[in-house]
Structure to design on (303 residues):
């Protein structure tokens, strides 16, 4: 797939382990944007070069109406 | 502040540790691993894990551990560490995560042991980091913290003070081209609570059977506690 991001992939076991550091709620993996999205907190945490950045002050606030695309839900 | 300091020193961090402590930090870390006694199949969390020093030692001591998750607030340190791990062919069972000790991105009751070596001193609110440590540990889980502490030997304490405020920043300037960062380290060591005070904080976070051991006359101490 040419949508595949470059750099090392994130270990699926790690995705299973992590939660939102703010809400401690579940995260969904947005493979295309390389983000871990917390719908509860309304924040998207970036993944850089396979390393998740689970810091609130480096997360992207979700825009209004940025819903849960069912096609990429993993939880 | 902490993040900026460590961004600038990440590349030379390991070399600096050796020079600063005359290599003694290796013995302290070995003492931490001795006390931890890693066991097969268990999940270890190393917070403020930096370039993976403690994580590698856990894996070296017990290759059959289930997993080591390494969390550090500094992305650059993790990248340097992961690069080292790749060069050594050590990647399996190791997770690298940028995160804050005061807001861990892990669910409750997730790990069997929590270690933090020379990281608690850099946390803004120690109580919050300890509360998070307690939360993510499974019942029966172990907390171990290696940190600079109070020298209790009368002559050593004077020498040590002179060393940390004069020699340390000089070393920092020469080796890491950054005296300020190492002056910050010296000051943060002085601000950190002494052995007994810190033991009280660990206990107040809910840990039980809390004890500590001094290493090198109290230059550093290892605190241990259990989540019951």
């Amino acid at each position: 797939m040419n949508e595949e991001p470059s750099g090392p992939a994130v270990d699926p076991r790690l995705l299973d382990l992590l939660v939102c550091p703010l809400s401690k709620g579940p995260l969904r993996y947005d493979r295309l944007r390389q983000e871990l999205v917390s719908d509860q907190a309304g924040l998207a945490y970036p993944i850089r070069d396979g390393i998740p950045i689970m810091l609130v002050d480096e997360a992207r606030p979700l825009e209004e109406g940025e819903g849960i695309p069912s096609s990429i839900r993993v939880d | 502040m902490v993040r900026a300091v460590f961004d600038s020193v990440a590349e030379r961090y390991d070399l600096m540790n050796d020079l600063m402590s005359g290599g003694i930090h290796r013995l302290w870390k070995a003492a931490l691993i001795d006390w931890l006694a890693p066991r097969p199949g268990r999940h270890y969390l190393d917070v403020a894990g930096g370039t993976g020093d403690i994580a590698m030692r856990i894996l070296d001591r017990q290759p059959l551990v289930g997993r080591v998750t390494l969390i550090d607030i500094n992305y650059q340190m993790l990248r340097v560490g992961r690069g080292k791990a790749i060069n050594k062919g050590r990647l399996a069972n190791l997770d690298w995560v940028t995160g804050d000790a005061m807001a861990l991105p892990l669910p409750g009751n997730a790990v069997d042991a929590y270690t933090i070596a020379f990281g608690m001193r850099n946390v803004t609110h120690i109580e919050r980091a300890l509360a998070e440590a307690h939360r993510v540990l499974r019942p029966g889980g172990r907390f171990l913290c290696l940190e600079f502490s109070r020298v209790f030997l009368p002559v050593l304490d004077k020498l040590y003070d002179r060393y940390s405020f004069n020699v340390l920043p000089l070393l920092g300037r020469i080796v890491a081209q950054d005296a300020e960062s190492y002056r910050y380290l010296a000051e943060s060591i002085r601000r950190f609570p002494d052995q007994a005070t810190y033991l009280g904080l660990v206990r107040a976070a809910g840990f039980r059977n809390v004890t500590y051991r001094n290493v090198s006359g109290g230059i550093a101490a290892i605190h241990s506690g259990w989540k019951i």
Q: What stands out?
A: The interface with chain B takes residues 11, 13-14, 17-22, 24, 45, 48-56, 58 of chain A (CB under 8 Å). The longest helix of chain A spans residues 12-17. The CA atoms of residues 28 and 75 of chain A lie 6 Å apart.
